[in-house]
Amino acid sequence: MFDIKFVRENPDAAREGLINKNEIDRVDELLSLDEKKRKLIFETDDLKSKKNQVSARVGQIKKTGGDASVIIGETKSLGDKIDANDKELREVEAKLEDILIRLPNVPHESVPVGKSAEDNVETKRWLPEGFSFDNEFEKLDHIQLGKKHDILDFERGAKISGSGFPLYKGKGATLERALINFMLDTHINQHGYSEIFPPFLVNKESMFGTGQLPKMQDDMYTIERDELYPIPTAEVPITNIYRDENLTEAQLPVKFVGFSACFRREAASYGKDTKGLLRVHQFNKVEMVKFVKPEDSYTELEKLVIDAEDILQALKVPYRLLMLCSGDLSFAAAKCYDIETWSPAENKWLESSSCSNFEAFQARRANIRFRREETKKLEFVHTLNGSGLATSRLMVTILETYQTPEGKIIVPEVLRKYTGFEVIG
Q1: Backbone angles phi, psi at 193, to 5 degrees
Q2: Is the dihedral of CA 281, 282, 284, 290 positive or negative?
Q3: pLDDT single digits (tens) 48-63
């Protein structure tokens, strides 16, 4: 959540951060409400102190048999002022809270300033040995390959649920499962993450904690009767494991990885390429989540990116790394890298992973803190998450990259122990 203390102490930096994230500058409004809140608290405390003093005099007068009616009237007047102040204070606090929960995290100083995805900065490109962007034969796209080998069925998926809900069949389903198991095993056995298998439905408090509510209400599915939400990513349930809890400094960093199905209405996807697996309402993802000390979070972000890259290098698929500009950052992120894999048939890069540092933004919303061993002081942890990775667009890259001139699909070597076969077709 946006930190009012940060705004109070760094108004210019807060203003610049909001503007760079393409948000309306509400710093002056926040400072005005904050000043009013603190003034009301001071005045109310002073009134309560006076009321206590007057009440004590009432008791003294009554003990001596005097007339305390005037002072009793003064006590009532003070009480009425206190009640009025308390009511106004609640209104001011509600306005302040409503603004704070809707404002995004400010970008880290290392984030390039920009308005849109066009201003993102490519920082790395990795190509497997022998790879060329010039296709040596005409590549079928993943939809054509899915039909050819009867491994993807978008028509029947749409019949069952609607467009954007893919149906994996036969060796396609096996390949998807193999990819998930390979990624989980790699993160657990090589990168040191602990596995979590989270609930796929979460409550309102969990969605608020990670920043999906209230800002992104329209992009989520809702089960209104039970006030539950199908998760847009495993980041939500995994981050909320420690909601309203205090960790010890010795526990950090905590590194979790988990698989989940992900559900997104994609209300803002109008006009974007939605064919096949390129933009779907349900997809599978392996998610990495970290809880770390503030001073370690940017080192841990770089490690998180490397963990995701290791998967792609093992699969031997081309990818590039983008540092997102300020205007393309998500609501909660202070810094983010996108990892895009190459689609030979689409002839473009596809986002397959995002690795973000939220600093204390989510922890403040979810009230996740840790206690320093030396000072015994409680501080908010920093949270990070990264796709390790989402399978839908990665599957597009794998199918199209590994196809042969005859239209068969070679299974990446690292997946063969999971599939039990080496070729599709």
Answers
A1: -90, 150
A2: positive
A3: 998 888 777 766 776 6
Which residues make Cβ contacts (< 8 Å) with residue 228, sequence separation at least 6? 201, 202, 203, 222
> Is residue 88 located within the same domain as residue 121?
no
Q: Using the 8-state DSSP alphabet, how is residue 31 labeled?
A: H
This prediction's pTM: 0.92
> What is the C-alpha separation between 56 and 49, in angstroms, rounded?
11
Written as one letter, the residue type at 337 is Y
Residues 235 and 304 in one domain: yes
The CATH number for 396's domain is 3.30.930.10
Number of Cβ within 10 Å of residue 296's Cβ equals 15
CATH code: domain of residue 63: 1.10.287.40
Q: What is the pLDDT of residues 214-273, one digit of tens each?
A: 988 888 999 999 999 999 999 999 999 999 999 999 999 999 999 999 999 976 555 567
In-domain check, residue 128: yes
Helices and strands (H, E) in the chain, number of each type:
13, 15
Q: Which residues pair with 320 in a beta bridge?
A: 125, 340
171 lies in the same domain as 87: no
How many structural domains comprise the chain?
Answer: 2
Q: Are residues 316 and 392 in the same domain?
A: yes
Beta bridge partner(s), residue 317 = none
Domain-located, residue 323 = yes
Instruction: Name 410's bridge partners.
Output: 423
For residue 186, give the 3-state DSSP assignment.
helix
Asked, for residue 298, whether it belongs to a domain, the answer is yes
Q: Please name every residue paired with 370 in a beta bridge, in sequence order, or none if there are none.
A: 247, 379
Closest CA to 240 of 384, 363, 101, 390: 363
CB 152 within 8 A of CB 173: no
| Residues 53, 169 within the same domain | no
Query: Does residue 173 form part of some domain?
Result: yes
Give the span between the Cα atoms of 59 and 317, in whole angstroms: 84
* β-bridge partners, 292: 382
Backbone angles phi, psi at 351, to 5 degrees: -65, 125
Domain boundary among 100, 132, 150: 100
Residues 333 and 356 sit within 8 Å (Cβ to Cβ): yes
Q: Which domain holds residue 153?
A: 117-424
Contacts of 187 (CB under 8 A, 6+ apart): 193, 257, 286, 288, 307, 388
Cβ–Cβ < 8 Å for 112, 320: no
